[in-house]
Structures are given as C-alpha cells and as structure tokens.
User: What shape does this take?
Amino acid sequence: MTDAAAVAANDAATLTIRDNRTGSEYDVPITDGTIKAADLGKIRTAEDEPGLAVYDPGFVNTASCRSSVTYIDGEQGILEYRGYPIEQLAEKSSFLEVAYLLIKGQLPTKAEYDAWVHEITYHTFVHENVKGFMHGFRYDAHPMGMLMASVGALSTFYPDARNINDADNRHMQIVRMIAKMPTLGAWSFRHAQGKPFVYPDNDLGYTANFLSMLFKMSEQKFEADERLVRALDVLFILHADHEQNCSTNAVRSVGSSQVDPYSAVAAGVAALYGPLHGGANEAVLRMLKRIGKKENIPDFMQGVKDGNERLMGFGHRVYKNYDPRAKIIKKACDDVFEVTGVNPLLEIAQELEKIALEDEYFVKRKLYPNVDFYSGLIYEAFQFPPEMFTVLFAIGRTPGWLAQWLELVQDKEQKIARPKQIYTGDRTLDFVPASERWG
Ligand code: ACO
Assistant: This one.
C-alpha cells in the first residue's frame, strides 16, 4: 500500500452502526483493530436510558489495556517479551536478565545488570517474623496457599509500598518481591516436609539459591548440578509473562484500586492457584500415570476422540499451533533426564504426541502440545511434589505480573476496574419482616 492509500484507509477506519430501535446511525472510530466501548455507550434509545454495552464473560474479545510487555501470535505460535523471541531468550539469556527486560523494557548494560543482580541477591532474606507465621500453617497446608498468604503479608512489613506514585519506591518493592518469592516458595515446601527453613545463600545465583533453600540438609553448601540449575532457569524464563491471562488480569484488576503491589501480586497468586490456570501440568502427570504403559494408548486416545475425556497438555485458547514454550521444554527434558535418569512417563508422552500430531481429530481442531505437556515431567524429575508445580509457575511469573502492574499504574488511560452487569434479579419487592413471614 502507498503512503497516501494507507492514510486514506486509516481515515476510513470507522464502523458505521445503525440502531434499528431508533433508526439513528453512528460512526465509531476503529483504532488498533478495536472500537472504544465508551463510543458504544453513546448509542441509546433515549437520553435517560443506559447506553449500549458489550456482554463478554471471560473477556474473550475485549482489550482491557494497551501493553508493550508481551506479544503473542497464537496462529503462528509466536511469543515475544518486549519484542525478543522466547526461543532466543531461553537459549541465550538468564531469568534475572529477562526479569530486567520485562520490568525496564530494554536489555541492561553490564553495569545495570550487575547492579540489578546485586540488589535482587541482597533482598532474598525475609523478616524473621515471616518465619513465625509460616510455622503457624497446618502441617499439610498447600504450599500455594502459604505463598499467597505470605506474599500478601509482606505488605504489612513494607507499609511504604502503598506509595505507588513514587518511582524509587516502586522499584524497591519490585526488587523485594522478585528476590523474596523463591524464599517464600521454598519455605512453603520445607514446611510441608517438616524440615527446617534454609536461609538464602547470597553466594549463589538466583535459581541455584532457590534449589539450595529447597533441598539443602546438613551439608555446608548445597551445590546443585549446573544442568539442573540452567533447566529450571529456562523454565522460569518460559513462564515469566503471557500477556493478559487470568492471573495477570487479577493483578491489574486489584492493582487498579491503587493498592500496594504485594496485595496485587497476592491476587495473581490466588488466580494462578486455580486448576484452569496453573494446575494443568499436574493433570498431565495424573493422566500419564493412569495410562501407565504404551499398550494402553490406543484405548485412551479413542476415549478422547469419543469425547469422554481430554488429552491434557494439548490445546490452548490462544495458540492454534505448537506452543513455542512446549518446544523449548521438550529440549530441557533431555538435559534434565541426563542428570536424573529418564522419567518412564516420557515414553508415553512422546508416543501420545506423535499420534496426536498425525491424527485427524487433533489436526482438524488445531490441538498441539502446550507448555504444560512436558513441564510436569521435568518437575517430577526434580522430585517436586505436584503441589509445588504452581509455586514454581508463580516464581517465574512474578516479573511479568510486576511489569504489567508497573505499566498499569503509569497508564493515564487506566481506571479502577469495574465491569458492568446485566441485572437478572427481582426489583422493588416489599420487605416483609421475619416475624410476619414465619408467623
Ligand atoms: N483434548 C481433546 N479435545 C480437545 C482438547 C484436548 N486437550 N482441547 C480442545 N479439544 C476439542 C474440544 O472438545 C472441541 O472440540 P469440538 O469442536 O468437537 O467440540 C475443540 O477441541 C475446541 O475446544 P475448546 O474447549 O472450545 O477450546 P478452548 O480454547 O475453549 O480451550 C483449553 C482451551 C481449555 C486449553 C483446552 O484445549 C483444554 O481443555 N486443554 C486441556 C487442558 C490443558 O492442557 N490446559 C492447559 C492450557 S495452557 C495454560 O493454561 C498454562
């Protein structure tokens, strides 16, 4: 298209709506492939009637913000953080560098990176009272429930965090949260195991320190195998952001009330706790264990195609192609199993994938492996119990939640989140006191 044609097409970028209730016509501008809901609100049958609204449960076709954090093209299977393809970041970067990229919007210089790593490393400790209240949880408390509560509780340790309009203050809380999530996550795990909490080791890198806080016993220093450290670091990178998913939307929605970021992130952890969001990899493991051996696969697949159950770890609301994260995780499986020995369920997973990618049922519906298909196998090889899987996801997602929160609080167009409803209940009933109703 020539420049002039592009300008003309842009000028014509409007939607003409005719309201058949009134016969009125409206021209609504189209910007970035969207119309403003407020423009629809001007369409009304009478001055004192409410304007037209859209009904969109689950926000399936509603843009809630402008964002420059993460780009996804589900048809092509593309995922980029701040414009950088996930494949390159997973191969060449580290989780803390990716966290910097998400938060600051650009890659760090050497000095910026060193300062960032230093800050995060020296904020990994939590107040001793945190230890006290973590001990107060029941012996079988779910670690994700403990994480959610303890992240929220951090707001009481840093009351200055409510000063969200101060850039330095925001930076401080972001550093604290990225630094302390592994400590809280590891301590939730140790509590469930009845083991003493391990303090952070500031000589170790971010992910190596997390492994030390999880698994260290009586040894002077816990040194995890470098290949495992790298694999977990890559998994954190893959989970670091995924645009306006359920938990990010929760962070933004709660953050829109201008509450402190610990409370907003606690809402994100709560959303991630749900089985439709963070829990699918656990379901994949259960499915693989139920199938048990390769010979049982044909029967299982028939059940899926008959609609009796789903092939867990396949399909995605956005990706209608191979989830780019699944490809990278598959490669990480090889690295991890080199250290831990092969998880026997891998053979079943690979066979399921092979069959599904050729089977017309899955091909026609564009069902490909998603991020959860292989991640549970890796986590199990690390000897994480399934309850820990979502905690790992939450640690990885924290920089993404914070980058989105930062964008929200600086966005002049944002308002407190407050959707409309279509009221379906009774109206203007006369209240009869209990003494008369039960008389
Ligand atoms: N196995 C078998 N059939 C499937 C699967 C599956 N995993 N996923 C979708 N289908 C079929 C549906 O039955 C439907 O078929 P139909 O058109 O004949 O009725 C068609 O594919 C479209 O499915 P929808 O449910 O409409 O797709 P939607 O986008 O709403 O769901 C979802 C996406 C929830 C991820 C779905 O694919 C699913 O349940 N997958 C298994 C669970 C899973 O792996 N979740 C993790 C997602 S990744 C994440 O959250 C981090």
Observations:
- The two ends are 78 Å apart (CA to CA).
- The CA atoms of residues 284 and 312 lie 5 Å apart.
